[in-house]
């Protein structure tokens, strides 16, 4: 994907994605690529999205044209926190970018 669409993946985040590490500033799509399987919660921006909009469409749209939707993605992997096997963590997004990553209790 990096070679087909380099404009979508800033150079500084490519190594993180390939290493399986989600970082502050990533879009939901970048976080998905880095973090792997996930659960999610989406509160769509009512000014942009009609009621009952597909939450995954809302989530992926943030990577291209951010709005005021609120997104939480929960992951569990071995790469986010070195030495912690399958550590669960949550990523909170505002305006299409990760602003907070919190380690969850196992």
Give the tags.
single chain; 106 residues; alpha+beta; globular
Please, what is the average pLDDT?
92
Task: State the helical fraction.
Answer: 10-25%
Q: State the separation between the terminal residues, measured CA to CA.
A: 33 Å
The assigned structural class equals alpha+beta
The tally of beta strands, per DSSP, is 4
Low-pLDDT segments, ≥5 res: none
List the helices and strands and how they pair.
Elements: H1 11-19, H2 28-35, E1 38-43, H3 55-61, E2 70-77, E3 87-94, E4 97-103
Antiparallel strand pairs: 1-2, 2-3, 3-4
Write a concise synopsis of the structure shown:
This protein has 106 residues and is of the alpha+beta class. The protein has helices at residues 11-19, 28-35, 55-61, and strands at residues 38-43, 70-77, 87-94, 97-103. The model has no long low-confidence stretch (mean pLDDT 92).
What does this structure look like?
The protein is 23% helix and 27% strand. It has helices spanning 11-19, 28-35, 55-61; strands at 38-43, 70-77, 87-94, 97-103. A hairpin with a 2-residue loop joins strand 3 (87-94) and strand 4. The mean pLDDT is 92.
């Amino acid at each position: 994907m990096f070679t087909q669409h380099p404009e979508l993946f800033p150079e500084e985040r490519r190594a993180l994605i390939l290493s399986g590490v989600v970082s502050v500033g990533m879009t939901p799509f970048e976080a998905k690529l880095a973090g792997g399987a996930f659960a999610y919660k989406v509160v769509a921006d009512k000014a942009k999205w009609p009621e009952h909009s597909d939450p995954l469409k809302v989530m992926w749209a943030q990577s291209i044209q951010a709005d005021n939707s609120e997104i939480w993605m929960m992951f569990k992997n071995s790469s986010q926190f070195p030495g912690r096997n399958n550590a669960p963590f949550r990523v909170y997004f505002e305006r299409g970018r990760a602003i907070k990553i919190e380690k969850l209790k196992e």
